[in-house]
Amino acid sequence: MDILNEFENIGDATHIEKKFVISNKQHDQIELDQINKDREILKIVLSHYAIRNNFQFHVKSFCHREYLVACLDKNYSWMMRASRNGQTSQFIIRRLGDTHTCDLELRFKYQRQATATIIADIIKNKYTNIKTKYTVADIIRDMKHDYKVQLKYNKTWRSMEKVQEIVRGSNVSFKVGEDGCFLYVFVALNASMKGWPHCIPVVIIDGTFLKSAHRGTLFVAATQDAGGKIFPLEFTVVNSENDESWDWFLTSSDMLID
Ligand SMILES: [Zn+2]
């Protein structure tokens, strides 16, 4: 290939775009010839796209070679067909109908593409600041305002739980006595759980009295990181130090540390 030809190829926007592989779930376009990293990425990108553009689709075919979807109405005015790129895992959009003749009522009814996982993906940035309170009612209101999507309470609750698992991912449990009073609380932060596999496989446990107004005892499990620094794993506050409270702390820890 001579220099002039190569230059023309670089200047040809569609040529470059065809070679671009979509791997970002937040990618905001669905276009003919679009190359997606795999079928899963295409499915997520398409779900986001449908929510943003206020339509719903049926899956007609979803196998290892083909992904075929069509608009929810009977005319299939909008459809998309993607298939595998040779022996790679990539999926290329081969056909795309881009006009909708479907009923408005159908388009704004409960959005089937708005699954708990997809909503979780849309709202996750709201939870990066631990001080921000973003409730189920807030999610329902914002999804309706921003995407015209009407959500049911249960699904919204599940999506909120998913986000908290993704963003914070910490493990917290507590126990109350028969009289309903506080007995124990156990906390293992996400950062600790993620860090543990990279630490020295020795766990040190200890307990100390709490001198604040609420009293009780603090149990801590720690280890050492690769640099020899103390790395906290878990902590528990119990009413007092005894066999039962130690047992609860160690059983709770055991479920997380293998
Ligand atoms: Zn349509």
Question: Could you explain how this protein is built, in words?
Answer:
The protein is of the alpha+beta class. It has three domains: 1-110, no CATH class; 114-168; 171-254, no CATH class. It contains nine helices and eleven strands. The strands form two sheets. It has a six-stranded mixed β-sheet with strand order 1-2-6-5-4-3. It binds zinc ion.
| Number of strand segments | 11
Q: Please compute the radius of gyration using only Cα atoms.
A: 26 Å
Query: What is the terminal-to-terminal distance?
Result: 58 Å
Task: Report on the biggest sheet.
Answer: 6 strands, mixed
**Which structural category fits the helices and strands?**
alpha+beta
Write a concise synopsis of the structure shown.
The protein is built from nine helices and eleven strands. It has helices spanning 3-11, 13-19, 39-52, 104-108, 116-123, 136-147, 153-167, 190-195, 243-254; strands at residues 21-22, 35-36, 57-62, 66-71, 79-84, 91-96, 171-176, 182-188, 204-209, 217-224, 230-238. Mean pLDDT is 85; it is low at 1-18.
Write the layout of secondary structure elements.
Elements: H1 3-11, H2 13-19, E1 21-22, E2 35-36, H3 39-52, E3 57-62, E4 66-71, E5 79-84, E6 91-96, H4 104-108, H5 116-123, H6 136-147, H7 153-167, E7 171-176, E8 182-188, H8 190-195, E9 204-209, E10 217-224, E11 230-238, H9 243-254
Parallel strand pairs: 1-2
Antiparallel strand pairs: 2-6, 3-4, 4-5, 5-6, 7-8, 8-11, 9-10, 10-11
Helix pairs in contact: 5-7, 6-7
